[in-house]
Structures are given as C-alpha cells and as structure tokens.
From TrEMBL:
Residues 1-25 form the signal peptide. This is EGF-like domain-containing protein. One of its GO terms (biological process) is positive regulation of osteoblast differentiation. Keywords: Membrane, Signal, Transmembrane, Transmembrane helix. The lineage of its organism: Eukaryota, Metazoa, Chordata, Craniata, Vertebrata. SUPFAM superfamilies: L domain-like. The chain crosses the membrane at residues 204-224. It comes from Perca fluviatilis. PANTHER family: ALL-TRANS RETINOIC ACID-INDUCED DIFFERENTIATION FACTOR.
Length: 233
C-alpha cells in the first residue's frame, strides 16, 4: 500500500510536468502562428525590416524576433502584416511584446477594441488610413495620415493623464499601463489579494500565476481521484 501511494505520487508529478510543458508549448505555438498569418517574410526595405536589422533581430516569417539576453525566451519585437488581405483583426496576442506593427495595405473592416490590450511595448503602428489608432488619438503622442496610411507613434501612459483612470485604482495599488488606451491596477509592494487588502510578501504571484494555478487544480483533481481509488480498496 505504501509503495502504491509513492508510485501514484510520482505519476502525479510527471503528469503535472507534462501538463505544464504542453501549456508552455502552446504558448510558443501561438507566438509563432501570428508570424505565419500570411505568406512571405519581412522584407529588407520595409519599415519593420529596417527596424529589425537596426535592432539586431532575426526575421521569421512576418515577424522580427529578438533574444534579450535575459532569462526570457526569444520574443516578437516587430510584426509586418502589411498586404495580408486581413479584414478583421481580433487577436494578435502572440505578438504582445511587439514594439512595431505594420497592418497597412489591408482591407480592414474593423479592429476589435481589445486587439491590442496588453501591448505595453507597442510604440509604432501603421494602419490603413481610415482605421483609427488603437485607444483613439489621445492614446498616442503623434498621429499622422500619410500616403494612404495612418501612423500612430509613441504610446501614451494612460496612468499619467489628467483623468479618472489613475484615480480608479483601489488603495494600496498602483496604476500600470496595459496597452494603448488601457491601464491596470496592480497591488503595491507587500499587498495582494482582492482589492489589495491583504498584506505580506507575494512576489512571484504574477509570474507563476497561470502555471501555479494549473498545478494546483491538476494536483487537487489527482488527489481526489487517487483518494477515491484508495478508499475503494
Ligand atoms: C536583406 O539584407 C540582408 C543583409 O543586409 C541580406 O543578407 C539579404 O539577402 C537581404 N534580403 C533581401 C531579400 O534583399
Ligand atoms: C548580454 O550580456 C552580456 C554579458 O552579461 C553583455 O556583455 C552584453 O552587453 C549583453 N547584451 C545585450 C544586448 O544586452
Ligand atoms: C501585395 O500582394 C500582392 C500579391 O499577394 C502583390 O501582387 C502586390 O504587389 C503587393 N502589393 C504591395 C504594395 O506590395
Ligand atoms: C466588425 O464588423 C462586423 C461586420 O461589419 C460586425 O459584425 C462585428 O460586430 C464588428 N466587430 C467589432 C468588434 O466591432
Ligand atoms: C486624430 O488625428 C488625426 C490626425 O491628426 C486627425 O485627422 C483626426 O481627425 C483625429 N481624430 C479625432 C477623433 O480627433
Ligand atoms: C507625465 O506626463 C508629463 C507630460 O507628458 C511628464 O512631464 C511627466 O514627467 C510624466 N510623469 C510621469 C510620472 O511619467
């Protein structure tokens, strides 16, 4: 009986590891899918192409990728979806680390309000002329209409505007940018939980949040099923 328990514990650990690895793999996959949204690669002469070579990036399909020396894996810094026959833009989440996105020369009908939510690094976006900048003109330092395109340059920090947004954060929390036109409230140091009411160290929560939660859920399910099995003996 003792040995059996040890064995099932090992099985649980292996299962959890596999689950988390597949979570990571699917994340990587979506990141690369956005680079294959249409055929061709980023060309040298284009805005994204020039940006990529000046940032020491690597071109993969419609993406420019860079490895920032830190512990994070290679990520997208530029996305060139120009002339891709896109009519609707809803989810580019794999490219949320991008600094530059080109969506020009597409017959875009509409762009979802939340398409660029979380794109905190985005500082330059090229759109067809008749599409407004994400978050509106007030979310950008400079908006320019030129040769059939609209350029939105310099994402503004929504927390640093004379307006309501920053005031909306509960006590013990700080306003943080969360993409053009978006902000989020994150708990100040030492506070966590609902409305940041609890105090205490919780530094890794944001980083390990999704993985930790999945591990807890899977562990609990395994515990319940194993327990039921043990009882029935
Ligand atoms: C783009 O530039 C790189 C180096 O500058 C060169 O090796 C490559 O052949 C160029 N590609 C095209 C399609 O011009
Ligand atoms: C990467 O790290 C090395 C050593 O830590 C450093 O010399 C180099 O300048 C870094 N490169 C970049 C692009 O940060
Ligand atoms: C857009 O793509 C089509 C083919 O997919 C090509 O014939 C055309 O020249 C491209 N336009 C531009 C401006 O690159
Ligand atoms: C985009 O346009 C389509 C049809 O034109 C409409 O059904 C859809 O609700 C629109 N989506 C958004 C987010 O506006
Ligand atoms: C946004 O800026 C553009 C370019 O400056 C201008 O043409 C447009 O009218 C502005 N839109 C609004 C709603 O202010
Ligand atoms: C807020 O914006 C103003 C003007 O754009 C700037 O001078 C100031 O330094 C900004 N403050 C912060 C905390 O970013």
């Amino acid at each position: 009986m003792k040995m059996k328990a040890g064995c099932s514990q090992l099985k649980s650990v292996v299962l959890i590891l596999i689950f988390n690895l597949s979570f990571y793999a699917s994340y990587q996959l979506t990141e690369l899918q956005v680079c294959e949204l249409c055929s061709g690669t980023v060309l040298n002469g284009t805005v994204v192409g020039r940006f990529c070579s000046s940032s020491a990036g690597r071109i993969d399909g419609r993406c420019c990728l860079r490895n920032d020396n830190t512990s994070n894996p290679e990520h997208i810094i530029g996305l060139d979806l120009s002339n891709c026959s896109l009519t609707h833009v809803e989810d580019l989440q794999g490219a949320s680390t991008a600094l530059m996105i080109d969506l020009s020369l597409n017959p875009i009908v509409n762009i979802s309000d939340t398409a660029f939510q979380g794109f905190i690094e985005l500082n330059y976006i090229i759109l067809p002329q008749d599409i407004v900048c994400p978050g509106g003109n007030t979310s950008w330092g400079k908006v320019e209409v030129k040769e059939g395109t609209r350029l939105c340059e310099g994402q503004k920090d929504m927390c640093n505007q004379t307006g309501q947004l920053s005031i909306n954060c509960p006590e013990n929390s700080l306003c943080a940018p969360y993409g053009p036109g978006f902000s989020e409230c994150s708990c100040a140091d030492n506070y966590h939980g609902y409305k940041c009411l609890r105090e205490g160290e919780f530094p890794a929560l944001q980083v390990f949040g999704p993985l930790g939660a999945s591990t807890v859920v899977i562990s609990f399910l395994l515990w319940v099923t194993q327990r039921r099995k043990a009882k029935s003996f």
